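Per-record layout

source: Mustela putorius furo
name: Solute carrier family 2, facilitated glucose transporter member 5
length: 361
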Amino acid sequence: RFIMGVDGGIALSALPMYLNEISPKEIRGSLGQVTAIFICIGVFAGQVLGLPELLGKESTWPYLFGVIVVPALVQLVSLPFLPESPHYLLFEKHDQAGAKKAFQTFLGKEDVSREMEEVLIESRVQRNIQLVSVLELLRSPSVRWQVITVVVTMACYQLCGLNAIWFYTNSIFGKAGIPPEKIPYITLSTGGIETLAAIFSGLVIERLGRRPLLMGGFGLMALFFGILTITLTLQDHAPGIPYLSIICILAIIASFCSGPGGIPFILTGEFFQQSQRPAAFIIAGTVNWLSNFAVGLLFPFIQKSLDTYCFLVFAAICLAGAVYFYFVLPETKNRTHAEISQAFAKRNKTHPPDNTDPGTP
């Protein structure tokens, strides 16, 4: 469990950063959403393999942990053959030929002059800039609101209450009259909804943008958490109310995976220039896992004190997040780093670096 935790912490920082750096800005959001899509696929696969007919019996459940050996080995064998990030090759290794070859491999075409020029312009501006430490990034006034927004986004990602939903799922399904032996099969619907919503987000994110999906996702979660509180409070008063609770649970899961489930990792890569990006992902990952730990530690006490009204706490967090993103978050769709920095410049009260070629008139 310790090793798996270390791997999860590294992967949720390294993978989004890698995807951000290898993606043309036109598909940066869609490719970044792959992280969330495969997390959902993993959850769904675990639910399927955990069925009693497969590996969910008392005698076979330990083998379920062995299943992860397969994707781990596939990754271990395939990763050495993947090209390094062109940004890393250019900024850290100063290998322009290697960066060009990596772009050609990723994009499947010979002419990558436009993509190379975008990276070269940023490289010229940051020629003498060293990697920024976490403390330096936290102290930098030029990215203050980018850092604050990443912290808020990652905190909302974990504190929005999705993990708490799983605590209630089986009891709500039982209240709806579903026999206990059938509940694992009904629970598959939650994993299916997660996967479909994440795929939907990946398909529309470049058309709708990050802001609408993030604000809409958290806003809908707040709404359905409020309705769920009402249905849980009244579930013993009418036979059909538990079914409304099930609908609310599925709606909350779909709302989360259609935006908030993947966009926080995309934004972290888009907000910061190459020298700042590793420190930014360290901050994002730390807030992410600390918030996850806080939910796991505090939710049993919140649930015991407030009972079904505990979901109002999560509704308030989701609503606060949606309001924050409405007033603070600029749209980053199809924008370069310089354009995103310019969007934050007024709030930061600084002038962003001019990412243009000094030799160009």
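summary: The radius of gyration is 22 Å. Confidence is low (pLDDT under 50) at residues 355-361.
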